[in-house]
Amino acid sequence: MITDEDQVKIMDFGLAKVRGGVKFTKVGTTLGTAAYMSPEQARGEEADERADIWSFGVVMYEMLTGKMPFPGDYEQAVMYSIMNEDPEGVSESREDIPLDLENIVNRCLQKETKNRYQNTEDLRADLQKITVGTGLKPVNAGARRTVPLQKRTFLYGGIAALILLTLAGYFFLGRQSAATERVPIAVVDFVNQTNEPELDGLSGMLITALEQSRRLNVFSRARMYDEFKQMNRPDLTFVDETSGIEISKRANISALAVATIRKFGQLYTIDFKVIDPQTGDRLFSTKVEGNGQESIPGLLDQLSEKTRIDLREPDTQVQLASRSVAEVTTPNLEAYQHYFKGEELINKVKISAAREEFEKAIALDSTFSLAYYGLAYTLNWDSMVGARAAILKAIQYIDKVPEKERHLIKALYEIVEGNYEGAITLYKELLELYPSEKEALYNIGDFSHHNADYSTATIFLEKVLALDPTHERAIEHLIWNARELEHWDKMIEYTKLYVE
After folding, report:
1. Above pLDDT 70, what percent of the chain?
2. Residue 461 to residues 24, 145, 425, 433, 439, Cα–Cα distance (Å)
3. Using an 8 Å Cβ cutoff, are 107 and 120 in contact?
4. In angstroms, rounded to a whole number, what is the distance separating the alpha carbons of residues 307 and 286?
């Protein structure tokens, strides 16, 4: 639309709907949702951010040509066109369209998701390369114009700017506003009443699902073990509701997720609640159920989505960052349980035992990237042969990994290759998203120490101690830093702490 003040505005992607309402327009009504729907959505399949990129391509096509790429007089015809027909080329409607711009539109409208832009950053980068300042001729946009046709003159730069602003508003500004007040949340261990031990690690899966949120600040299992050590309970292995409340009060966590899983024949049910640990008040509760173990990852996805929405994360942001937990871990619950145990053993510095658990996980799922990362981590810890092969496997399947762990995998690869500067860069990028990631804080401190940057090393290692006052390696390096800087009082202070 163009306003009377010559402002260009995209009024609606055509995808908005009332939650739980009718999904598609009907014959004889405005073809809104269907016209902008991606092929995978039209087939009823799972959709991710690449579906939004498709819809955005439809908007670009419409802006440039004044018509829809997949026309039809009724919903079924539009859906058939989306799934089976190629749109008429933009340049067939407009001779003055640069080839680069047409290629961008065509890539957005690829029917196979793997052939589209995989993220908006790449799309934005290509848009920024388009020549600015060349005039485009008027477009006949039919009933969609709101001002006389002679006003419809664009510049390539104007189109690129509009598209970039839309991308910024739709994909980035919303995330920023949603993240201004992040909600600290912890997840206690599920009460498992199924007598199926492979379901003991579901709390870890739910944590992974929730960590996709920019609204929530999720308390990791590693952080919980740090709190246990400070509470003189380092051997605690099961985090129940009582322990979770105690940890939450110490760490100023404002939401605590508690769940119980039961089994009735082949029907699995999860009773779920989120409470305010400071007051004991229930914030919300729900119940989900599904048939067979294979349904459980999907149940966790439902719980993650409800938690994010009920804790006031915008609906659009939930949809933009919601990959299924099976997709970013493993669909094999037994494999995940071994991985979960391996992580627990690393937190207890039982490296050899952890390595065995990761090997068992890989034996059950040979594409389990997180398990390969855990294996590489333990092998590198003990300077054993095989760390490079394991981390290369983790890299091979890195698409099946959450955002945070992608940084960790790439950083460990750089470490194994001896590129410590590259690893530091990746860890710093990770800390922008997850400021309390202890592994990143420690490694920056460690590498800075060995690069003789003792002041920087001290800053990061003291952040580690704020999270984990018993972190022996951090204390050890702080002693050495103080010695090199000739801060004798601090050296004695850290040495006493180390002895304790």
Report:
1. 85
2. 55, 60, 17, 19, 11
3. no
4. 10
The answer to whether residue 17 scores a pLDDT higher than 80 is no
- Which pLDDT score is estimated for 163? 58
- How far is residue 348's CA from residue 226's CA, in Å, rounded to a whole number? 10
Helix (H, G, I), strand (E, B) or coil at 145: coil
User: How many other CB atoms are found less than 10 A from the CB of residue 414?
Assistant: 18
Spatial contact of 281 and 275, defined as CB atoms under 8 Å apart: yes
Q: Which range, of 173-177, 438-442, 477-481, averages the lowest pLDDT?
A: 173-177
d(CA 120, CA 321): 13
Sign of CA dihedral 405, 408, 410, 416: negative
Torsion of CA 361, 208, 297, 248, to 10 degrees: 110
**Which is nearest to 394 in space by CA: 369, 357, 418, 411?**
369
DSSP designation for 242:
H
Task: Provide the pLDDT confidence category of residue 287 given band limits of 50, 70 and 90.
Answer: very high
Contact between residue 257 and residue 185 where contact means Cβ atoms under 8 Å apart? yes
pTM: 0.60
Q: 248 CB contacts (<8 Å, ≥6 apart)?
A: 186, 254, 256, 277, 278
Which residue type is seen at 296? I
Using the structure block, give the residue that is written with the tokens 């949603």.
Answer: 178
Question: How would DSSP label each residue in 333-394?
Answer: HHHHHHHHHHHHHHHTT-HHHHHHHHHHHHHH-TT-HHHHHHHHHHHHHTT-TTHHHHHHHH
Contacts 24+ apart (CB under 8 A), 134-138: 134/96, 134/98, 136/94, 136/96, 136/97, 137/94, 137/96
Q: Phi/psi zone of residue 452: left (φ > 0), alpha (ψ -120 to 50 degrees), beta?
A: left
pLDDT digits (tens, 9 = 90+) for 355-375: 999 999 999 999 999 999 999
Distance CA 318, CA 417 (A): 37
Give the best-scoring range by mean pLDDT among 33-42, 69-78, 349-358: 349-358
In order of 179, 208, 290, 319, 440, the CA distances from 402 in angstroms are 18, 7, 24, 15, 16
